[in-house]
Amino acid sequence: MSLLDSVLSEVGGNLDVGGIADRLGIDPATAEKAITALGVAHPQPGDTVETASAQTGIDTSTLSQIVDQIGGASALSQLSEGLQNHPQAASLFGMLDRDGDGNPVNDVMGMAKGLFGSSQS
Q: What is the pTM for the complete model shown?
């Protein structure tokens, strides 16, 4: 059982990342990333699903289905609190967001440039 599964069990009973992934027909790693992003995005200003989508690139339809699977807005509040109590569970998301701006995409692109070299002239 992953650390995120432990946080989810605190949130609401028998939820598990693999089960959610199976029900939605997505990869478990994508489900874990999506659930973590939703928990991180929930206390931020704006719409949680749209914020998580912008941060991960996962479509809003999938994220909305995940919100339904975990129990809605009240479960998101509990998930967000659980992630704050277990910051290591949010490490998948936070580890990628090196500059802490809430958007790991620019950081991942920077890492990719570092791996493959810059094409600047």
A: 0.67
**Residue 65 corresponds to which tokens in the numbers above?**
């289905």
CA triple 90-95-98, angle to 5 deg: 130
Q: What are the residues whose beta carbons fall under 8 Å from the beta carbon of 70, sequence distance 6 or more?
A: 8, 11, 12, 15, 20, 35, 38, 76, 79
Instruction: Give the distance, in angstroms, between the CA of residue 22 and the centroid of all CA atoms in the same chain.
Output: 17
- Asked if 8 and 70 touch (Cβ cutoff 8 Å), the reply is yes
Distance CA 7, CA 10 (A): 5
Q: What does 77-97 look like in DSSP terms, one character per residue? A: HHHHHHHHH-GGGGHHHHHH-
Phi, psi values for residue 25, rounded to 5°: 70, 35
| pLDDT tens-place string over residues 10-58 | 655 556 788 899 999 999 888 888 988 898 888 888 999 999 999 889 9
Give the CA dihedral 15, 18, 23, 26, nearest 10 degrees.
140
